[in-house]
What we know:
Order of helices and strands: HHEEHHHH
CATH architecture: Up-down Bundle
Low-confidence stretches: none
Helix content: 55-70%
Number of domains: 1
Mean pLDDT: 88
Largest sheet: 2 strands, antiparallel
CATH superfamily: VKOR domain
Strand content: under 5%
Number of strands: 2
Distance between the termini: 18 Å
CATH class: Mainly Alpha
Amino acid sequence: MAYNWQSKAFIALSVMGFAVAVYHGYGELTFSISHLSSCTFSHTISCAGVFASGYTTVFGIEFWVYGVVWFPVCLLVGLWAIRKYGSPVRSVMVPFLMIGNIFTLYPWDIEIRLLGGVYCLVCVSLYCINYLMTFVTLTAKSSET
């Protein structure tokens, strides 16, 4: 089967999301200011500031766990859609990906409102990867065509 650009991009973004989520998990599990200095550029762009905030869980589960689970599930659902329809069709994938997009509203609220504009680049990159996956699927065919 020849993959179109949307299929290739979706697979690559899912794998990239998983890799970044694993890196994020490693950063949180081995949390130390010295380890996170590579991700801290200022008071505003500071992974250490976000990790140390105490706002890195939802329902008692660390955010990074959701990413480590979410992106492989995206890959599996995407591969299923690609195999069945020939691409990550928007009628299947966009509603599914909206779960992840809606989930990002809570961490954005934390970074913007609760932390007063302190952002973790690793976290923001995960949100953006999900947004890019959604964009890619919006450009794919619908299942009806």
